[in-house]
Amino acid sequence: MPTPPKSAACPCGGASYASCCGPYIAGDAVPPTAETLMRSRYTAFTLRDEAYLRATWHASTCPADALFADEEKVHWLGLEVKSALRLRQRKAESADQAEEIYRDSVEFVARYKVNGRAHRLHEVSRFVREADQRGDGALRWFYLDGSFPE
């Protein structure tokens, strides 16, 4: 899987790959917001980085099948974030202890070509922030699922 040069613009539309999504995909940093995670996941799609996509996908909704087909030739053209919404809920587990649950949604449009034909993906993605059960237990954002307006 090719990685953009450090000075190259980030596929998500950010500054350089090295100062935008690169540290998240390399595992050197954790995306601090759902929007940042969504942008890094878009970049991972452009790089066909299945390992990163699976690591950031909530275990309850992550597909078992391969995410990419070898014969699939997708050329990603750009990303436009339409909106990001944070919802914070307080879930009481007992009288003296409460757990905060963070949920975000990010609406975006991703443009791409398959075999020279242009397409656009308009999605409202849902994210949840919780302890990483597959790693060190630290709080992290995970992609949960998405809906497709229109």
UniProtKB/TrEMBL annotation:
Family, as annotated: Belongs to the UPF0225 family.
The protein, known as: UPF0225 protein GCN75_25215
InterPro entries the record matches: NTF2-like_dom_sf, YchJ-like, YchJ-like_M
Limits of the YchJ-like middle NTF2-like domain: 33-146
Name of one Pfam family that matches: YchJ_M-like
